[in-house]
Amino acid sequence: MKLTGTWNREEVDDFLTTTVPIRLSCRTPADHLWMLSLWYLWEDDALWCATGADADVVRYLRANDEVAFEVSTNDPPYRGVRGRGHASIDVDEEKTLLRRLLQRYLGGTDSTLARRLLAPERDEVRIRVDPARLHSWDYSDRMQDS
Question: Measuring CA to CA, which residue among 104, 85, 88 is closest to residue 96?
């Protein structure tokens, strides 16, 4: 994995443990661009996302595993990490990753959304993004008065 930009590896790792979603970009089987936001974890030098097995992005990634992504703040001062890599998909029968993401983003599984996502009839997959390149950027200095 090639690392460039403002931050060192430890700073990138620290930033990628924040709870903002990842914006993931891929190509459809018709070679159109597609982008979506997903919850993620940064672990084992990979970005881990969960989604329903029937989600369009699953079909797209099975046709072409190349992705680009960005994790960034939504409010000034803007900063983040972007990159590119390859995605792989595997079944998550026990919804283990989804449960971890629900804990991280919602604080637990006691909500209407969590119950709907964890429903036994809903099939879940894990998306693993292995970055080939990470690039960090931070506009904090130029946005000090923002």
Answer: 104
Q: pLDDT band for 116, please (50, 70, 90 cuts).
A: very high
CA–CA distance, 108 with 94 (Å, rounded to integer): 16
Paired residues of 69 in beta bridges: 24, 83
What is the tens place of the pLDDT at every residue in 46-101? 999 999 999 999 999 999 999 999 999 988 889 999 999 999 999 999 999 999 99
Q: Provide the pairing of β-strand 2-5 with 124-138.
A: parallel
Q: Distances from the Cα of 85 to the Cαs of 1, 3, 26, 33, 82, in angstroms?
A: 9, 12, 10, 15, 10
**Cα 20 to Cα 8: distance, rounded to the nearest angstrom:** 20
Question: Which uninterrupted H or E stretch holds 130?
Answer: strand 124-138
